[in-house]
Amino acid sequence: MNIDSNFLTLRSYQDADAGEIFKLFYDTVHTINKFDYSDVELDAWASPSTDVSSWANKTLDNKTIVAVKGGKILGFGDIDMMGFIGHLYVHGDYVDLGIGTVIYDYLESSIKSNVYSTFASITSKNFFQNKGYKVERENTVERNGVLLTNYLMTKNKK
To answer: Does 26 fall in a domain?
Structure first.
């Protein structure tokens, strides 16, 4: 799959992307999410000691795409066949340029589901609300011994 625009290309995830998307994930969590989570929480969520291969393998059963410009990955996301979005991250230098929306729109259109869901961070909650998601419940998840707050959010397809 390739979707070209004047700004970026969306393409399917490749094994060679694992290191770059983990770095993007780590950097984004530690820069964008720092306003909503403590340093301890950020380190538990995105640890520099994470095994990149096992982390990347979590997305292999899902439809995973990356947004690329000039050979650099600017964002990525994945969705499973039931409509659950596991990851949706944009490089901190490119936030608020519409890249997250382009990735999200493609993911949603690629899966035929009546209900879409995600566990949204405090930071991404508004993004998903703007896409029509409703908070089902506040959620607590344990990562590396630290409790983190997120939200189970769902959207019914019209």
So the answer is: yes
The model carries a pTM of 0.90
Residue 45 maps to which CATH number? 3.40.630.30
Number of domains in the chain: 1
Collect the ranges in the chain with pLDDT lower than 70: 1-7, 59-60, 158
Considering the domain boundaries, does residue 66 fall inside one? yes
> Mind listing the pLDDT tens digit for each residue in 38-47?
999 999 999 8
Q: Measured between alpha carbons, how far is residue 64 from residues 14, 31, 35 in Å?
A: 9, 23, 27
Distance between CA atoms of residues 22 and 28, nearest Å = 10
